[in-house]
Structure formats: C-alpha cells, structure tokens
C-alpha cells in the first residue's frame, strides 16, 4: 500500500468520530493496527475505518471489547470484517444479547419492590441481594463462625433442624502473630 493511501491518527479520528486516545486504546488492545513512520508517527490503512465502525457498532449493541477482539483476531489474516462475517458474528452474539435482555428485564421487574436505599427492604430486595439463597433461613447473618452449645445445629447457634452444608468447610489453619483464629469469634 502506498504511503499516500494511509491515514494519520488525526485523520482516522476525524473520519471515524473516535477520539485519538480511543484509537490508541484500540491499538493497545489489538483491535486495530498501525505502522510507524521513520519519525515514529502512526499510519493506518484505510480499511481501519471499517474496522473501527465494526468495533463501535458491536459495542453499541453491548458486545464487550474482549469478545470483539477475539472475533477480529479469528478472521483470516486479521482482515476487516465483511458482510458475511457480520452476519455470522451477529447470529453468534444474538443468544448472549438475549440472555442479557432477560437479565435486564428481571432487574426491571425487581425494581418494583425496591425502595431505592435498600435498608428497609433487604429481607426481600432482589436488587440489593440477588439470588439470596440464605434468605429462606430467615433474617440475620448465616455464615459467621459461632461456637455452638450442645444440641445447637444451625449456623447461628439457635436450636434448629440440622441443615445440609452447602459445601465442606476447609479447616482453619493456625492463627498467625497478631491474628485471631476462628475459635476467638464470640469469645
């Protein structure tokens, strides 16, 4: 490619609508490439504009940069995506976007019960404490290490039915200098 058909970083920024700092960031992340002149100035091929357009549209629909970078690096010779590439990638990304839409809808629907600050509705707030499986055991802390009296089997030390442990606890190692071990909790 002749040097006259190359673009400076300022030209790419002006034509793409992307700040020079963003171009440098994209380059550092491997999304676009440039060559350096003898004076150490960046020069971009014209297809960089299409590559940037691809990146921006992908970001606009919610695709993370890491995913975009993987898609671009998987193209033969790291060429600029064409129409067929976009059709294939957009189909592949569709299920990810559908999952994200469902998650946002659940968040929106949970907003109805939320009072905004969370402190008055923590017992049922799906936003402040999503997927709280311990809430079924009632209010209060559930995972604190507390000495238990004989016959106490609940994590909080109150008499209750024995619960199945979620996963085995690892034994605590000896406490280091100036540290209190688990046996000191509640002492």
Layout of helices and strands:
Elements: E1 7-8, H1 9-16, H2 20-28, E2 35-36, E3 42-44, H3 47-60, H4 65-73, H5 83-110
Antiparallel strand pairs: 1-3, 2-3
Mind explaining what this structure looks like?
By secondary structure, the chain is mainly alpha-helical. It is 36% helix and 4% strand. Strands 1-3-2 form a three-stranded antiparallel sheet. It is elongated.
Profile the largest sheet: 3 strands, antiparallel
Unreliable residue stretches:
153-163, 171-187
Radius of gyration: 28 Å
Can you list the strand order of the major beta sheet?
1-3-2
Number of strands: 3
**Span from first to last CA?**
76 Å
Q: What is this structure, in a nutshell?
A:
The protein is mainly alpha-helical and 187 residues long. The protein is built from five helices and three strands; from the N terminus they run βααββααα. A hairpin with a 5-residue loop joins β2 (35-36) and β3.
């Amino acid at each position: 490619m002749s040097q006259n058909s190359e673009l400076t970083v300022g030209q790419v920024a002006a034509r793409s609508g992307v700040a020079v700092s963003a171009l440098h960031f994209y380059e550092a992340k491997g999304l676009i490439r440039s060559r350096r002149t003898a004076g150490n100035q960046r020069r971009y091929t014209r297809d960089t504009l299409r590559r940037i357009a691809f990146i921006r549209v992908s970001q606009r629909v919610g695709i993370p940069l890491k995913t975009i970078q993987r898609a671009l690096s998987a193209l033969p010779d790291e060429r600029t995506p064409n129409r067929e590439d976009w059709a294939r990638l957009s189909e592949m990304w569709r299920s990810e976007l559908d999952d994200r839409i469902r998650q946002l809808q659940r968040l929106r629907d949970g907003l109805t019960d939320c009072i905004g600050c969370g402190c008055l509705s923590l017992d049922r707030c799906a936003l402040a404490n999503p997927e709280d499986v311990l809430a079924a055991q009632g209010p209060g802390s559930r995972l604190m290490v507390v000495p238990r009296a004989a016959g106490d089997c609940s994590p909080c030390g109150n008499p209750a039915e024995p619960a199945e442990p979620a996963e085995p606890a690892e034994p605590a190692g000896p406490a280091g200098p100036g540290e209190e071990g688990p046996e000191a909790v509640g002492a």
